[in-house]
């Protein structure tokens, strides 16, 4: 299991980090909301490797059948590796490009407030968002908190959902059955 988890976890991590480095310049210079959509799309794309990892392990090592729990653990381990790489990549990107955590959060909050004004949000909602933004600005200036938030608050939960879905689908040995395993 270790080989499959490491291979697919590192692959997912590399995919998300490379795509982050390719897309961040346009995201930071444009619409942050679109940037979030791009970011989560690349996470789902990278974490689709969980499906292939579970299928590979099921077919190659377990004779075409896997229990939900084992499949879910494989997905979670891959998610941890990829999330760690993503968070490390984000910190590296910020360091290489001299991006300060507070500056980034200010830019993010400015974008959020602009969107709220465009859709006609009440001033009380805007004020609440600004107060929440001040809280996050304080947190994001601490590299450890930022690292952990990026790892678990952004990517890991996406991996958790993908792992649940893939484990539920692939526990059925009739879904994309192994070619060399006889189906009863």
Give structural notes.
The structure is a single chain. With 184 residues, the protein is an all-alpha fold. It has 2 domains: 2-97 and 146-170, no CATH class; 101-140. It contains 7 helices and no strands. It has helices spanning 2-28, 32-47, 49-61, 68-96, 101-118, 123-140, 143-170. Helix 3 packs across helix 7 (143-170). The longest helix is centred in the middle third of the chain and has 29 residues, at 68-96. The two termini are 25 Å apart. The mean pLDDT is 88.
Radius of gyration: 20 Å
- Our count of domains comes out at 2
Summed over residues and divided by their number, the pLDDT gives a mean of 88
Question: In total, how many beta strands?
Answer: 0
Quaternary state reads single chain
Strand content: under 5%
Broad structural category: mainly alpha
Main β-sheet: number of strands, strand sense, barrel status? none
Helix content: over 70%
Low-confidence segments, ≥5 residues, pLDDT <50?
none
Task: Sum this structure up briefly.
The chain has 184 residues and is mostly helical.
Task: Describe the secondary structure blueprint for this structure.
Layout: H1 2-28, H2 32-47, H3 49-61, H4 68-96, H5 101-118, H6 123-140, H7 143-170
Helix pairs in contact: 1-2, 1-3, 1-4, 2-7, 3-4, 3-7, 4-7, 5-6
């Amino acid at each position: 299991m270790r080989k499959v988890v490491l291979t697919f976890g590192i692959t997912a991590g590399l995919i998300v980090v490379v795509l982050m480095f390719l897309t961040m310049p346009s995201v930071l210079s444009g619409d942050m909301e679109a940037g979030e959509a791009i970011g989560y799309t690349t996470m789902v794309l990278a974490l689709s490797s969980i499906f292939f990892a579970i299928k590979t392990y099921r077919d190659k090592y377990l004779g075409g059948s896997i229990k939900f729990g084992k499949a879910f653990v494989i997905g979670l381990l891959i998610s941890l590796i990829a999330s760690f790489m993503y968070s490390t990549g984000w910190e590296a990107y910020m360091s290489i490009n001299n991006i300060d955590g507070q500056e980034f959060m200010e830019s993010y909050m400015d974008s959020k407030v602009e969107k709220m004004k465009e859709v006609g949000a009440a001033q009380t909602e805007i004020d609440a968002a600004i107060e929440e933004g001040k809280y996050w600005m304080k947190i994001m200036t601490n590299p450890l908190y930022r690292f952990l938030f990026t790892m678990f608050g952004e990517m890991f939960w996406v991996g958790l959902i993908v792992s649940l879905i893939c484990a539920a689908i692939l526990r059925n040995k009739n879904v994309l059955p192994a070619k060399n395993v006889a189906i009863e």
